[in-house]
Predict the 3D structure of the following.
Amino acid sequence: MHWRSWTLATLTLALLAGCGGESGSTGASHGKPGDGPTSGELVKVAYDYGVGDGVRMTLTTSVAMERPGSAEADAPTEMTMVMRALCTEVRDNGDRVLEYVFESMGMPGGAPAPPGLEGMRGHATIDATGKMTDMTFEADDPMLAAAFKKSMAGGGLPSMVPFPPEGLRVGDAIDMKDMYPGDLLSELLSTTPGSQASSTMDGKLVLVGTRMIDGAQAAEFAVSMTMSMTMEMDLGGSTMRTDTTSTSSGRQFVDLKTGFPVGESTTSGTSTMTMSGGPAQAGDREMKSTSTSTCTCERLP
C-alpha cells in the first residue's frame, strides 16, 4: 500500500479511537475510580481552560502481520506520532483558539516521515460547549493538510468525545456516525494519486463512569468500532484491489474540567486484508494483522 494511504489510514483510525484503554484493564496508569455519578446523574464537561493550557499526545501504533503460508507473524511494524494542542487565545464570547502542531513522526524501519507532516500546524476555534466551529491546517502538501482537517473534523481536540451540552448519563452512547458523517476514511485514502476507495464505519462510545487520572476527574468511555474498506490502486498497467475488515475496542478518558484527553492507555484491534490483482496477478492473497495503539496524554504547560 502506498505510504500516504498506510499513514493516513493508521493515523485516522487511531484518532477516531482516541486515547483508548484496553477494555477491563486496571492499574495506576488508568487511575482510580472516583466518586462516580449516581444512577441518572448527568456528567458534563466544563471546558474551563485558558491561554497556555494544552495537551501533548504521543501515539505509538504497532502492527504485526500474519502472511499466508507462514507459521509465525512478522515482527511488529511500529509508528510513533507526537502532536500537541495549545490554547493561544480566549475570546470575549467564550470561544477558544487552539494551535495544533505535529511535532514528530517515527516511521517503520526508520523510513523518513511523509514530506510536510513534521511541523505541520493547524488552528481551530472551539466554542464554549466544546464544539469545533472552524479549522485550518498549514502544510507544504495541500492534500495532506486537507486530509488531516477531515480526520479531526468530528471531534478533534480538546475533546475527542464531543459531549452534548446537556451532558450524558452512565450507559448513554455517542454514535461515531454522528461525529464523522459521510465516508470519511475513503475521502482520506482517495487523496493518494491513482486510487479510489470506499468504506463503512460503525462505532459507539458508551459512558461507563468517572475516575481520577493524574489528579483530574475524568469521564471513562468504552469504545468499540468496526470498519470495512475497499481500495483500488492504479499501478501503471495493472490494478490492485484490497478489501479490509477490522475491529477495535478500548477505553477513552476525558478531563471533565478542560475536555482534553487525559492519561495513558491502550487500544487493541484485529484486521483481515484480501489483495487481488497487481503485476503478478497471483490470485487472492489474504493477510491478517493485530494492532496495539498506546496513547500517552501529557498536560501542558
